[in-house]
Amino acid sequence: MPKTIGPRFPIVITSYEVAMNDARKSLRHYPWKYVVIDEGHRLKNHLCKLLRELRYMKMENKLLLIGTPLQNNLSELWSLLNFILPDIFASHAEFESWFDFSEKNKSEASKKEGEEKRKAQVVAKLHNILRPFILRRMKCDVELLLPRKKEIIVYATMTDHQKKFQDHLVNCTLEAHLGENALPGTCWKGKLNNLVIQLRKNCNHPDLLAGQIDGSYFYPPIEDIVGQCGKFRLLERLLVRLFAKSHRVLVFTQWTKFLDIMDYYFSEKGFEVCRIDDNVKLEERRRQIDEFNDEKSNCRIFLLSTRAGGLGINLTAADTCILYDSDYNPQMDLQAMDRCHRIGQTKPVHVYRLATAQSIEGRVLKRAYSKLKLEHVVIGKGQFHQERAKSSTPLEEDDILALLKDDETVEDKMIQTDISEEDLDRLFDRSDLMITPPGETKAEAGEAFPLKGPGWEVVLLSSAGGMLSSLNS
Questions:
Q1: Could you give the number of structural domains in the chain?
Q2: Cα 197-199-201 angle, rounded to 5 deg
Q3: Which of 163, 253, 345, 388 is least enclosed, having the fewest CB within 10 Å?
Q4: Cβ-based neighbours of 148, under 8 Å, separated by 6 or more
Q5: Segments forming the whole domain that contains residue 24
Q6: What kind and span of H or E run contains 247?
Q7: Is residue 6, in this structure, part of any structural domain at all?
Q8: Are strands 58-64 and 273-276 parallel, antiparallel or unpaired?
Q9: What angle do CA 112, 117, 119 make, to 5 degrees?
Q10: What are the Helicase ATP-binding domain coordinates in residue numbering (predicted)?
Q11: Residue 182 pLDDT
């Protein structure tokens, strides 16, 4: 750390790594007027090393910059507030007690009746606590000309190849479950969770399972890569149209092995591909990002893992984002979309969320959308809106078994089918996202295309820019 900190160099910009290594050795010797922490969510764990080291520094004022809305996790919220004002928010237990509105002496019926009142009290208390400490700004507040975004779920149907894998996985697991469930000490939750993972792999591509089963290191012929998987077939249909109209595309998935399959497929087809996952070094990331954002680049598709590529990078050269599979944490998907829908974007953005119809994937997605309004407290600009009221909890055995049942409604089955070529062409229209000049009527997103139909449904924006399915509107 240089000894010239002072009037000549009044501002120090450093990384988390340097702060963690030098906070005690060097940084603590200076009285800091302001300390600004970017990516403030890194301090949500009150036991993390970064937070521990920062406490050695003398700070007069502190500012946290957080890109995603705070979620209703009181422990994480307390950690942030404890860092900002340790004297006021000194005790985690006391902070938790502020939100204890339980009525211990009432009957179960009375407790149930008062549940909504309790939730409202929790939200009201959160608002009162947070209002003096939070300034919320959306992209639209600072960039009035930011092009608009539309998110659309597009469904694919399984191939016969996938259905065979699915039937085999489900039948074998459930037969064992029914036969041995009565045994004392038998825990099926882990096996059922593993079944869900295998079924999700099958939805992404059956070769994720086939290679695992037969130990093969070779990919199928590129014709089979498309022909074996309904969702990959849908991806190809989308990309043919997108490339024909010179769109540049980001494709996100959670599975690194599926990135390998896509990388192989597009390379064999002659496409230049950029790619970021956990194994890509920092310098290589920067090189690929610069290459993709270069207007003269021939790279039209960027493959990314949702976790590694969903934060901290700017890919505004793309105007289309494809979420090949959905993350359990919806905030991760929102961050992925924001790689291209951010300040600097000059074109309307389409987000296509792919899902396999009438599968574990379609049911998990429906479940997530139906509960979004009740699962979080979202902080909107200048105000707070109760859209969700409790944090998500892990799935229990009964929940997982319910997801395996084929209980879709008639409407579900109508929506969850292969989209027609005609509707797919109509879906590509972005005219409803164009910003209209002052004085003219501004068309609302979704007017040019129905909210739902055979093979698709439009996702409506919540106050936090998040996802609310038209199914539940």
A1: 2
A2: 70
A3: 163
A4: 348, 349, 433, 434, 435, 445
A5: 16-140
A6: none
A7: no
A8: unpaired
A9: 95
A10: 1-87
A11: 47
Half-sphere exposure of 336 (CA within 13 A, CB side): 34
Rounded to two decimals, what is the model's pTM? 0.74
At 382, list the tokens: 């200048």
Statement to judge: residues 233 and 115 lie in one domain: no
147 domain residue, yes or no: yes
SS3 260: helix
Give per-residue pLDDT as tens, 127-147. 777 778 777 777 767 777 788
pLDDT score recorded for residue 146: 84
- pLDDT: which is higher, 255 or 465: 255
Sign of the Cα torsion 280, 283, 287, 292 reads positive
325 found inside a domain: yes
| Main-chain phi, psi angles of 462, to 5 degrees | -85, 180
Q: Please measure the distance between the N-terminal and C-terminal CA atoms of the chain and give it in whole angstroms.
A: 55
Q: For 312, how many CA atoms within 13 A lie in the half-sphere containing its CB?
A: 11
pLDDT digits (tens, 9 = 90+) for 239-258: 999 999 999 999 999 999 99
Tokens found for residue 343: 């300040």
Q: Of 140, 173, 196, at which residue does a domain stop?
A: 140
What average pLDDT does the structure give for the chain?
78
Whether 5 is in a domain gets the answer: no
> Do 71 and 167 reside in the same domain of the chain?
no
Distances (CA, A) of 212 to 160, 198, 209, 456: 19, 11, 5, 32
Average pLDDT in the 406-418 region? Answer: 78
Most distant CA pair in the chain, distance: 76
- Higher pLDDT pick, 392 / 126: 126
Cα–Cα dist 433/450, whole Å: 14
Angle at 437 between CA 433 and CA 438, to 5 degrees: 125
Q: Both 165 and 128 in a single domain? A: no
**pLDDT score recorded for residue 110:** 56
Q: Which among 212, 214, 223, 289 is positioned nearest to 255, based on CA atoms?
A: 212
Per residue in 282-332, pLDDT (tens digit) is 889 999 999 999 988 999 999 999 988 766 789 999 999 999 998 877 778
- Of 111, 140, 169, which residue sits at a domain end? 140
Alpha-carbon span 175 to 318, nearest angstrom: 47
Of the candidates 296, 214, 205, 287, the one whose C-alpha atom is nearest the C-alpha of residue 254 is 205
Do 152 and 76 belong to one domain? no
Torsion angles phi and psi, residue 430, rounded to 5: -115, 15
Considering the domain architecture, whether residues 129 and 156 belong to the same structural domain is answered as no
Question: Would you call 11 helix, strand, or coil by DSSP?
Answer: coil
Do 215 and 246 lie in one domain? The reply is yes
What CATH number does residue 111 fall under? 3.40.50.10810
CA distances from 290 to 23, 33, 204, 287, 313 (A): 33, 36, 29, 5, 11
